[in-house]
Amino acid sequence: MKHEFTAVIEHDGDWFIAYCPEIPRANGQGKSVAEAKENLAQAIELILDDRTLPIPEIN
Questions:
Q1: Which of 38, 39, 52, 55 has a 20 to 30 A CA-CA distance from 3?
Q2: How far apart are CA 39 and CA 16, in angstroms?
Q3: Tens digit of pLDDT for each residue in 2-55?
Q4: Is residue 1 very low, low, confident or very high in pLDDT (cuts 50, 70, 90)?
Q5: Rounded CA separation 37/50 (Å)
């Protein structure tokens, strides 16, 4: 399934910082816009994967 999210990218010195307002704590950085976007996409994927893991039963 493909999702679309907002990527906000800011330039800070030598780095580009990217974050997604729709997904708290999803952020990435890189030396280029493309690298920051790719790292953000990986962070979003990891967060969404974690949210879909089954909750283990506690006995």
A1: 55
A2: 11
A3: 788 999 999 999 999 999 999 999 999 999 999 999 999 999 999 988 877 676
A4: low
A5: 20
> 36: closest CA among 46, 51, 26?
26
As given in the structure block, the two tokens for residue 19 are 């974050």
d(CA 56, CA 59): 10
How many alpha carbons fall within 13 Å on the CB side of residue 22?
9
Do residues 40 and 30 touch, judged by C-beta distance below 8 A? no
* Residues 1/27/34/12 CA torsion (nearest 10 deg): 160
- The pTM of this model reads 0.82
| Helix locations, 1-59, DSSP H | 33-51
